[in-house]
Each structure stands twice: as structure tokens, then as C-alpha cells.
Amino acid sequence: CYARYSHDYIDGGSFFGDIYAKTNIADVLRKELRTFTPQTVNLGGVCDSYQHAEREYKLMPGVLELLREHNIPTVISTKSTLVLRDIEILKKMDVRVAFTVTTMDETVAGLIEPGAPPPSERIEALRQLGEAGIKIGVHMMPILPYLTSDMQSMEAVYSAAKDIGAGYVLAGAVNLKGSTRKGFFDSIRESFPYEYGKIKQLY
After folding, report:
1. Do 148 and 110 touch, CB atoms closer than 8 A?
2. Of all residues in the chain, what percent are helix, strand and coil, respectively (each to 5)?
3. Are 166 and 136 spatial neighbours (Cβ–Cβ below 8 Å)?
4. Could you give the CA distance from residue 103 to residue 11 in angstroms, rounded to a whole number?
5. Taking the CB of residue 40, how many other CB atoms lie within 10 A of it?
6. Average pLDDT per 10 consecutive residues for the chain, totaling 203 residues
């Protein structure tokens, strides 16, 4: 995850294992919206708002309801099909939901995104959102050299997006800022040892 570097200020713990839940987020948001200049709010750009802890904490419905009440344009970026839980609220909002889909190869996806739903499930969730009248998109990022960068792999993502009527596909390169770099290469060495040398040489 490129966002690892942005969490260095927490100073300690496991990036993937220690989750910090802002349980008072709706209360704080309600106060901040009193003086908020209306502009698009992006949820999930650094940390997925629908990661596994959200099943327990159920913080997003309160956040979404406030954004709906104030008619705030919203973009949600996620990998989780849990977003479907809130579809009735989303239908009443000015919102766009985008799923990260880096590859349609479920074996590769399972190695680079452990714990996330398979690409086929993400595409199906997007299809359901689109059929409910919600604007949808696909974030094909990061494109990983030698793993998801070949034409066949990328065309498969574009084709899946087209088939479900996604409004756009946003592609992006690998971001290796700060501590993200070590985590990335440790992961590549473990999961893709044959490609490790080639990818390391590129960067």
C-alpha cells in the first residue's frame, strides 16, 4: 500500500495489523460541516473506509448520512464489497464509487492484495451499484511492472469496466515514497521471487 509512508507519524505497530478507528468521526464531521466550503470529499484515498474493521464499527453510514444531508459531492475509493451494505444511502447522494482493480487475474490479485475480495467480486459489486443508479469507476492502480503491466492484463481490466458501464478507468504508476519502498520490495521478494530482480532494477 503506497499510503504506508503517510502513517509514519503513528510511530509503531503494524501497518496492516493495527487499525485505528476514529469512532467519533460523525460527531467531528458534523461540527466541521458547519463551516465547510462545499467541495468534493474523497473517502478512501489513503485508507479504505470499508476495510474489515468497518463491519464491526459501522462508522460509514453516519458519515454518508451527514454528507447527504449537506449535499456534499463525494467520491468513495475502495476494494471492499462491504460498500454494498450502504447502497440505500448512496442512492440518495451525489456520489461516485470507484473500486481498485489492478488485475483480473485472481491468483496475482490474491498475492498483491491479500485479504481483499477477488477482482470478479469487485466488478460484480460495481455492477450492482451502477444498476442502482450510482456513478461508478475503476482505479487500475498501481500498474505493477512485469505483474500487471502487459497489454493483455490491462485490456482485461478495461473490458470488465466497459462491460459494467463504468464511467471511467483511472490508471496510475507505483508510488514508492518513504517506508512504502521497503514494504513493496519485501512483498515482491516473497510473493514474486522470479520477478523481484527485474522490478528492483527498474527502480
Report:
1. no
2. 50, 10, 40
3. yes
4. 32
5. 11
6. 64 71 95 94 90 95 97 97 98 98 97 94 98 98 96 98 98 87 92 96 93
Q: Please, which residues have CB within 8 angstroms of residue 136's CB and are 6 or more apart in sequence?
A: 96, 97, 98, 99, 126, 129, 130, 164, 165, 166, 167
Count of residues for the chain? 203
**164-190 core/surface letters (b: 16 or more CB in 10 A; e: else):** bebeebeeeebbbeeebbebbeeebee
| 37 backbone φψ class: left, alpha, beta (φ>0; ψ -120 to 50) | beta
Q: What is the CA radius of gyration of the chain?
A: 18
- Residue 72 CA to residue 95 CA, distance in Å, equals 9
The per-residue pLDDT for range 28-65, each reduced to its tens digit, is: 999 999 999 989 999 998 889 999 999 999 999 999 99
Q: Are 128 and 84 in contact (CB under 8 A)?
A: yes
Cα gap 83→32, rounded to integer Å: 24
